[in-house]
Every structure is written in structure tokens, then in C-alpha cells.
Amino acid sequence: MVFSLTFLGLTWLVTSLAQDVAEYHVINECPAALNLYINGQQDSLIDSGSSDFKILGLSLTSFYTDLNGGNPNGSLSTQAHFNPATNQFMWYYIVKSPDNFNTGVEILTSQTAANGICEPAECVDASCNTAFTPATAPTSFTTPSAPLLNQCAKTIVVYNVTFCPGGFFPGNAPSSTTIHPDFDDSKCLDVQGAVYENGTPVQIFDCNGTGAQQWELTRGSTKVKVAGQNFCLDAGSTPANGVGMKIWECFDNLPAQQWFYTDDNRIALENQGLCLDLNNGVTTNGNKVQTWQCTDFDNFQIWDAAA
User: Fold this and answer.
1) Which helix (H) or strand (E) holds 45?
2) For every one of its 307 residues, what pLDDT tens digit does the chain have, with 9 covering 90 and above?
3) Among the four 131, 221, 223, 269, which has the fewest Cβ within 10 Å?
4) 10 Å Cβ neighbour count for 169?
């Protein structure tokens, strides 16, 4: 009986803690160690390529660093903000300084994004349109202001906060571009959910300025590489009509990743007679891209890379 009461007591304690705290995973992909500040107080030093877990009470919380021209009070730093302003949801968003952009910041959740909930938030350069400034940061939390204001569950979710997603400081990123189907500047080639893992599908999505839509490629023989990541557009080991595209770790001389960007704006798999193709030409968000037999004057196979 004593054991049962103790067990029940521990269960209650764990449940209570789960309801009263939020869990954060802070990741440093910057090329240098960073001082992590939480709510204006220096918290810890995180080495480049390392991370740290934080379990904090449910209150307004901000993360930032003074690295690369930021400062201890955060006024010159890009910040990740979290606000448990409702009974059910945690609101999260990015705030950038109008006077300095010291690091890019990305927020991902451990929950799968669906129906506008638990979507990724990312701002990787000063021109991003996915972050508030201190003057425009929200003071009330009732309706999402996509893509600036996001929401997910308060608890039982890990919030992953990455500084310098892609591994570089602003201004030092490789030259990158968005890729648009048939010159439609409102739609972009997109890594689904900004999940940089082997096998993540590549799709069409509304252009939103995130790193999931930034690519590196050149005219002629080329890889189609996710900017700032070691992942490439990959056609698989048995390319054929209707095979869906994905990203995969980049390898030299791998036929599935060797493309040719033609002067008439087709992205062809080298020596295969197959082209990057928009399935049925449908630009609805989430429509997957595929390979299909290359055909002259086929608008489903026209891709504009606009630097």
C-alpha cells in the first residue's frame, strides 16, 4: 500500500510538472560558441555544433545571443519568443532588430505541423518577412498572424530553437535562389516542413522567404542543393515517370543528384531523358514534384530560378 501511494504521488508530481513547464532544445549551428541569454540574463555557453535542453516555467520567454554584433540586452539580437497566453496554446514568433541582424533563428516543434498549427518559424537574414521588430511585436494573442505568429501546444512539445540554421552568419551564406514553377513568383519549390533529413519530400508551396525554399544551382551541369545545408534534390535509385522527389545527403558523382539546368528553364536529370515535373501542373500547396519524360514546350517542366 505504501508503494502504491508513493507511486501515485510520483505520478501526480510528474503530471503536475508537465502541466507547469515547457521544454526547449537550444541548438547552436553558428561557426562559433555562443552565449545564450534567456529573458535578459546570461544562461550558458553553447559550443558550435552543440545544444542544450532547458525546462522552464510557463511564462513569457525569450532566447537570444550576443554573438556576431548582438548585445547582452538583446536590442541588437535576433530573438525567439514564446508566450503561453491561452489555456491551450503556446504562441511563438521571431523578433529581429531594425539596426542589426546578428544571427538567423529557426523554431521547430516536435509535433507534426497541420492545419496551421505547430508550423516552423524561421528568419535567416535581415530582409526576411517572417519576423516582427520590437515596435511591431504582438501585445495580444488571439489570432495567428501567419507567417509571423505561430501556435502549438503549451506542454508535451519540445520547442527546438536553432541559431544560425545552415551553419553560417548572415551575409556569409552561399549564393542562393528560389525556384518557381512556370514563372509563378507566388509559388516556390519547398522542402516539406523545413525538415532537413534524408527522404523528406519536395513540394510546391506558397513562397514565404524561409530557408526551406532557398536553393543553389547553376546553368548547365549542376546539383540542386538546399542552401546552407548538405542536402540535395534526389531522384532516387530507380528514376522513372511519376517518381516523387526528395532531399538526400549530397554526394559527388551520384546520378540521382546530377541535374542539368537548360537554357529553356528545364531541370533535367542528366543522361536519363527525365525532367523535374510539377504533377499535373497543380500549384496547390503540398503538391509533390516528380520526374517525368522531358517534353518540349511543357509548362509543367518549366522552372525559373530567380536570384
Assistant:
1) strand 41-46
2) 333 333 333 333 333 344 689 999 999 999 889 999 999 999 999 999 999 999 999 999 999 999 988 899 999 999 999 999 877 889 999 999 988 889 999 999 999 888 888 999 999 988 888 999 998 888 777 766 556 889 999 888 999 999 999 888 876 555 689 999 999 999 999 999 888 899 999 999 999 888 889 899 999 999 999 887 789 999 999 999 999 999 999 998 899 999 999 999 999 999 999 999 999 999 999 999 999 999 998 999 999 996 5
3) 221
4) 18
CATH code of the domain containing 70: 2.60.110.10
Give the β-pairing of 158-163 and 21-28: parallel
Residues 13 and 136 in one domain: yes
DSSP per-residue string spanning 264-285: TS-EEETTTTEEEEEGGG--ST
Cβ-contact 108, 160 below 8 angstroms = yes
57 and 118 fall within a common domain: yes
> In this structure, are 9 and 134 located in the same domain?
yes
Q: Are 228 and 174 in contact (CB under 8 A)?
A: yes
Domain count across the chain = 2
Does an H or E element contain 10, and which? helix 2-20
Q: Which of 112, 36, 45 is nearest to 74 (CA)?
A: 36
Residue 43 phi/psi, 5° resolution? Answer: -105, -50
Per the confidence metrics, is the pTM higher than 0.70? Answer: no
Cell numbers of 195, please? 525538415
Last residue of a domain, one of 138, 163, 188: 163
